Amino acid sequence: MMGSMHGSTNDENVGGEVTTQEAMRKSIFFLIFITLCLVAFGVLMVYSATAPSSIQLHVDDPEKYSLFSSANSQLQFALIGIVLCAIAAFIPMRVFRMAAPVILVLALILQALIFTSLGVTVAGNTNWIGIAGRTLQPSEFLKLALIVFLAYDLAKFKPGVDYKWKYMKWSGTGAAAAIALVLAGGDLGTALVFILIIVGMFWLSGGPTRYLFLAGAGGVLGLAVLVAYRSSRLTRFQQYFDSLFSLPDGTAPSQVDYALWAFGSGGLGGTGFGTGREKWPGNMTEAQTDFIFAVVGEEFGLAGTVLLMGAFIALGAVLLYMARMHPNRFARLFITGTALWLCGQALANMLVVTGLIPVFGVPLPFISLGGSSMLASLLAIGVVLSCAFDVDGVRQSFTVRRSARRAKAVMSGGDHE
Fold first, then answer.
1. Which of 8, 15, 50, 237 qualifies as a FRET site for 297, CA 20 to 30 Å off?
2. Residue 8 lies in a domain
3. Contact 12, 331 (CB under 8 A)
4. Residue with the larger pLDDT of the pair 236 and 23
5. Is the pLDDT reported for residue 346 higher than 70?
6. Using CA of residue 240, residue 246, residue 252, residue 253, what is the dihedral sign?
7. Is the residue at 162 inside a domain?
8. Count of domains forming the chain
9. Is residue 360 part of a domain?
10. Rounded to an integer, what distance in angstroms lies between the CA atom of residue 101 and that of residue 280?
11. Crossing angle, helix 292-325 and helix 255-266, to 10 degrees?
12. Which domain range does residue 97 map to?
């Protein structure tokens, strides 16, 4: 798809200038709508998923723990993220393109801070840093930075013409550095998301298939080594294969077992918002983060999970449509990379929670508890909007139509006098 659309200037058109402008205008409205819906629903689900633990902590120590402190924090991050998204949307696309190498270097430095005294270890993974009493997950921002950089570097080369390894050396180096830093912290799940983004963007940019096959073979071998290296990962894989031929374990249930019970309890219409049982302490320990999709299934039933999946499908569809219609190669690559990240990670999370693939910890974008994930995801949407506004006439059309509405309102007011 991406390889067949070559070129790198804003003067190129796909289907005519008017068609492109109108396509971007409609896509902007739809993208903003579906993003706000996902953010609002995500905050709502965090309030529900954290309610039992929040109430228990508040009752045990009301001075230290305020009621719904985690959910309130998620709401704050969502509001901040929306502001940052709007700011990013009004920054010209060329600024992100020109600053791409600097953005990646800063993100790599931020990721490297996990190896300093600021590093915070959770469940054996050192993928967070503690700042001013809060934790930050640098890898979420590194995803965004890497997508910007890959789009910047890969946009330079015409697919099938001068696409050789020597032209991909900087993209390959940046990608390898990002994966290495994340794996060094022990976060295999996040590293797999990076691999999805990198392979997808290299392939869609027209990269030689033989390189991707070689990288894929090496990745499978490396994955096997990393799984065998840590006993907890090996146990997860063993549990996954055992669960394929057995019912949920009632004596020593796993996270997936609790999730399957939650889906079963939810039925078609769900038990009702806030009434889920599997999110209570002693059941799903990651109900508010990696397994929040199961809470959706229990409280909103099959209908709710289908609607949520439909929302992510719609998000992916509008992003791919914008990528196909955009006349600039950097923008096409960045928007496609964002779709791979947000929708690919959402699919991976849902497959894990439903027991279709082995458990590896990745949050559900916009839905799971996590300020870093929310901020980074909304920033990515902001840059996508910046790319859309960069199409000739799109930004101006919003200004012109707003001015026309104001003039019409003034004229209508004058007629009533």
1. 237
2. no
3. no
4. 23
5. yes
6. positive
7. yes
8. 1
9. yes
10. 45
11. 90
12. 23-398
